[in-house]
Amino acid sequence: MREGTRFLLGIALLGLVAAPAPVRGGWLVDEARWHASGHGRMLCSDCHAEIARQPRHPDPGRVSGAGFDPGRCADCHAEAFEDLSEGRHAGKPIDPALDYRRCIACHDPHAPGAGAAATRVSCARCHEERKRLPALAAAEEACMACHRLRDPADPQAAGDARRLCLSCHGDDGGAAGPAFLPPPPRLRTEPESFRPHAEVSCLACHREAARYGHGGQPAVDCLGCHVRHDERVAHDAHLAVSCTACHLEGVEPRRDRGSGRVTAVSAATPGGFRHDLTAASGEGACRRCHHAGNGVGAAAAALPPKGVLCIPCHPGTLTAADAVTRGALVVFGLGIAGSFFLWLGAVRGGSSLAAVPAAGPGPGPWRAGARIAHLVLEGLLQRGLYRQAPGRWLIHALIAWPIGLRCLWGLAALGGSLWEKERAWPWALLDRNAAAGALFFELTGLALLAGTAAALLRRFPRRRTGIPGLPGGAWAGSALLAAIAGAGFLLEGLRIAMSGHPPGSAFAFVGDGLARFFHGRPGLDELYAPAWYVHATLAGIFAAWIPFGPMFHILLAPVLIALGTEGGGVRPAARRAPPVNGRARPGNRPEQGGDHGDRRLPHA
Asked: Domain check: are 212 and 249 in the same one?
């Protein structure tokens, strides 16, 4: 019994190995392979006799794979069909349930058969090897003018493929299919209608178009040759928008409810859309989606790209495309310049920078390792602040670390989108609906809100003991940061509600909860742009205020710590007066600032 089972398994495996691989017929013929096949000495009309009877060739309803007639094979292969009627094929029994009469499912009529590997050796016994194929008859050459398979590098390849495709898809009438099939998409035949792909073969984009019955081929993937636009060009990554939604004329963008993607739907004649590509630049191109009641989840107004002010919290670009960013940068630059001249005047006036012991001892003599360790311990981890005030250290960490982590994320996404466009990871960082990114920004946003709320609550009661070297009076900055974060959560909720809760948005659980509150409310697309500008304006006010408020230590403290100054909070000390009776005068002590101390350099 076991030996019988092994024998049957062996026969089954042998049948699987020996079975011919399925073959899909194509419109294009490799002339060399056809010449070496059993049909190489036949005329095209011997098998395709119906073409000669067509007044206008081709007729897609006659030459498609669905219209294959086994009778054209039976005229020459009668013995094979007799074997099929007796339940045999190629000398082996066959399963009657299988359709062996559809010959082209396994046999390519334009290529050698199973013995193709030995063809070269067998032919060489009698025939001299030649480097060129014999010339074709005039009728065959007329067929090959369209149906010859060319090397993609051949200059004529693009023109031949276009001529073949336009025989059915041209706007000069083309070939009509059966009445029960929809008409094929029509394309303009003028050469300029194919720009900027005038030198590219149709098969480079429509890879399955050379197959029989190619109506069900997958959508064109433009990213096979092109890279995505960054925010400087598209004002957003537009990861859920297909290229054709922007770059094809005569189409209307539509959002697919299942995938959440915005795709192109024909708005032209019932036969399909025109194959006219457009550069899609300028405000007019954006209006295709960005208008009131657009239905694709886009804001009614086309918003500027996220610029340099957004990078500390979001992936952005090195641009200043809107008035808010430009104005904030001007005020910020003036504040930095004023602080520099104030510091320079203090030094020239004889003041010195006296370190305030707010962050522990300095790194000592210059050593690279010691400097880096000091910067990490005192600048990043704030060891000195933790030793003096653990509660305030926690508040500082809840505010500073989320912003720092978001900044690293944004810089990585920016660098990848500029220099690694061909790779997938930059766009994964930019995808607002990706699970990892949505959860990361949600958690860091909540931590920032918690830190700013705790900082504001510290003001009550008002009387507190000052901690030397710590900046005071930062409640305004904390309030601005809280407002920025709150507006950001509001924007995320509006975006998710407008776009119909795309896959992955549930990981932004706060935004998703807000989106459920907004769901179904009219005018969300018109509300999004004003909310975006409120968020951007608050961020601009905060950036412009930094050089003039106590939060200037955000910029200056890391620099001083990196230079080896003891602590991040340093101020110009007053000139020491001579001691009186061996005792220091009151003015000889360094200034110490409490929670509401005066604003002194470097907090100026």
From this structure: no
As a whole number, mean pLDDT of residues 224-230 equals 84
pLDDT over 50 (residue 147): yes
**Residue 532 CB neighbours (<10 A):** 20
Q: Do 389 and 443 have their domain in common?
A: yes
Task: Tell me the average pLDDT of the chain.
Answer: 76
Give the per-residue pLDDT at 602.
37
Instruction: Output the CA angle 134-138-139, nearest 5 degrees.
Output: 115
Contact (CB, 8 A) for 103 and 74: no
With respect to residue 480, please indicate whether it lies within any of the assigned structural domains.
yes
What pairs with residue 254 in β-bridges?
Answer: 263
Structural domain includes residue 601 = no
Specify whether 453 is located in the same domain as 543: yes
Among 25-39, 167-181, 558-572, the least confident range: 558-572
Residues 559 and 421 in one domain: yes
Total number of domains constituting the chain? 3
Task: State mean pLDDT over 301-322.
Answer: 90
| Contact between 152 and 201 (Cβ < 8 Å) | yes
Least Cα distance to 394 among 386, 402, 384, 404 occurs for 386
Secondary structure of residue 581 in the 3-state scheme: coil
Top pLDDT among 295 and 139 is at: 295
Q: Is 402 exposed, middle or buried (0-12, 13-18, 19+ CB in 10 A)?
A: buried
d(CA 37, CA 110): 7
CB-based contact 87:94 (threshold 8 Å): yes
